[in-house]
TrEMBL record:
It comes from the Bacteria. GO terms for molecular function: hydrolase activity, acting on carbon-nitrogen (but not peptide) bonds. PANTHER family: IMIDAZOLONEPROPIONASE (PTHR22642), PROTEIN LONG AFTER FAR-RED 3 (PTHR22642:SF2). It holds the Pfam family Amidohydro_3. This is Amidohydrolase 3 domain-containing protein. Residues 51-535 form the Amidohydrolase domain. Gene3D superfamilies: 3.10.310.70, Metal-dependent hydrolases (3.20.20.140), Urease, subunit C, domain 1 (2.30.40.10).
Length: 540
């Protein structure tokens, strides 16, 4: 064997192979792992040009696979939107101050666009009048952290041609209050899309490609070496291909084409493009539709009504909403499945998950495939009947573990503490043999995967909310959801997700031994170095 390009020595390498074995060292040649063993064994392979990384006894893990996120939207928002998450904005007054300051600084004709508002942690929703005053006559749109709801001011309604007597769009709602039924400013689902589309109308391939440089930096700083872009639109697909041609990828990108963009999936079908098309840097994973909504925003579909205090303008009783007709979604999923495209459908509440499974079962009935790996995205409220249905059909629970830490308090408040027993129930999923990779859904939640892994192991949020400890898993099981299972859910298990001979040399060196430390300590894990293809791409 030729001398390796790189040796990692003196580590605690969690290979995440089938036996979850450990090694002290590994060797890399041409971007692939070629050997594992003791430090002495690997050192003996050293040649004149071999680089050596001394892990100094640190925990080494396979590169994190985030199997569902929105890097394209995050890229644009990092460049042109303003972040108003709770770490930046702690009260309604601070939010309005941020809106006022940003709008005053923008050039004429530009919208004031803000993202990741969590009203529960930031003093509640401002009124329409308050947003109007803060915007100073400029259109303003504030996207809630879940990405399903937003706040628009009067100038934004006018800019989008939505008058005071406008009817609600199909599968959406303009919230109204009072005897006159005046807008409150809160808009839900497809109503929010009207304003999102207006803000994003000017996005270009160049905007996405430039923003992706910062997104890659952030991912790599958290040990994330592979991301699947959920609901990926055609403009992002073009931007990503440009980056591939220009050699600008420092991490790996999977495309989950958006069923929300009319024509995109039919064009893939017509062109004969199937899942797996591409290479190890940029690959088509599958296609996705989003019929279900947001639990923290009180729109996700459940069989039982929401609890807690309704937001002004919210329907009462409220069991959430669905964004497609059943037969229409089944027809779309069936066509894609028959064409060789892996099907993903979002389901958050138990009614939403059932709705997704209805469509996927119809597709399988029309075209049976044993190893289909159809995924229910987010798949939060997995009651025993839902779990049995996932198991029976061989479906993947693509679990929104990122929601646990950042949105857990809202889930408990909106669904009740008793519902936490079946929310992201990874211990039950493992016992049933239902594969459940984890994901962040960034920029809905933060990029950092370790806060979610801590929640999986402790079943408590950083704020102390109880998510029911009966569903806690081991740190190794949490890590598996973000490595081996993440790769498997994308049909990439032969290339990534574990550190074994022949697989890609993507790995991270951590300051915390997440497999042996107190599970609560996982939350504060820092990544000391990240390697992709055997090349250092981040150093703390």
């Amino acid at each position: 064997m030729p001398a390796p390009d790189l040796l990692l020595l003196n580590g605690r390498v969690a290979t995440m192979d089938a036996a979850e074995s450990e090694a002290e060292a590994l060797a890399v040649f041409r971007g692939r792992v070629v050997a594992l063993g003791t430090t002495a064994e690997m050192r003996a392979l050293k040649g004149p040009g071999t680089r050596v990384l001394d892990a100094e006894g640190r925990r080494v893990v396979p590169g994190i696979v985030d199997s569902h996120a929105h890097p394209d939207a995050y890229a644009v928002r990092l460049r042109t939107w303003t972040l108003v998450s709770p770490d930046r904005v702690r009260s309604r007054e601070e939010l309005l101050r941020a809106v006022r300051g940003r709008c005053a600084a923008l050039p004429p004709g530009r919208w004031g666009a803000f993202y990741r508002l969590n009203e529960r942690a930031s003093g509640g929703y401002p009124t329409l009048a308050e947003l109007d005053a803060a915007g100073g006559g400029r259109p303003v749109f504030v996207l809630r952290t879940d990405g399903h709801l937003g706040l628009a001011n009067s100038a934004a309604f006018a800019a989008c041609g939505v008058g005071p007597d406008a009817a609600d769009p199909p599968f959406g709602r303009f919230d109204r209050a009072g005897a006159a039924g005046a807008f409150t400013g809160l808009v839900r689902e497809t109503a929010a899309h009207i304003f999102l589309n207006a803000v994003h109308a000017a996005d270009t391939e160049g905007d996405i490609a430039e923003g992706m440089e910062q997104v890659q930096d952030e991912c790599l700083a958290h040990g994330v070496t592979s991301v699947a872009n959920s609901l990926c639109p055609s403009v992002a697909i073009r931007a990503f291909q440009r980056m591939r041609r220009e050699g600008r990828w420092r991490m790996r990108m999977g495309v989950i084409a958006s069923g929300r963009e009319e024509g995109l999936v039919p064009h893939l079908i017509g062109a004969g493009v199937q899942s797996g098309f591409g290479d190890e840097w940029l690959r088509l994973v599958g296609v996705e539709w989003c019929p279900d909504c947001s639990t923290s925003g009180r729109t996700a579909a459940y069989w039982e009504p929401y609890r807690g205090t309704p937001v002004p303008g919210e329907p009462v009783p409220n069991t959430g909403m669905l964004l497609y007709e059943r037969d229409d979604l089944a027809e779309r999923a069936t066509a894609a499945h028959k064409a060789g495209l892996q099907v993903m459908i979002e389901g958050v509440g138990d009614r939403g998950i059932d709705f997704a499974l209805d469509a996927m079962e119809a597709a399988l009935a029309a075209h049976p495939v044993a190893d289909h790996r159809m995924r229910v995205e987010h798949c939060c409220h997995v009651t025993p009947p839902v779990l049995a249905r996932l198991k029976r059909g061989g479906f993947v629970d693509s679990s929104a573990t990122g929601f646990m830490d950042e949105l857990g308090e809202a889930y408990a408040a909106n669904r009740g503490q008793d519902a936490m027993r079946h929310m992201w129930p990874h211990r039950s999923l493992i016992a049933a043999g239902v594969p459940a990779p984890g994901h962040s859904d960034f920029a809905v939640c933060r990029v950092n995967p370790f806060t979610a892994m801590a929640c999986m192991a402790t079943r408590r949020t950083a704020g102390g909310a109880d998510l029911d400890a009966s569903e806690a898993v081991t740190p190794a099981q949490a890590l598996r959801a973000y490595t081996r299972l993440g790769a498997w859910a994308q049909r990439e298990e032969e290339e990534k997700g574990s550190l074994e001979p022949g697989k890609l040399a993507d790995f991270a060196v951590l300051d915390t031994d997440i497999l042996r430390a107190d599970p609560e300590a996982i939350r504060g894990t820092r990544v000391l170095a990240t390697y992709v293809d055997g090349v250092e791409r981040h150093r703390a």
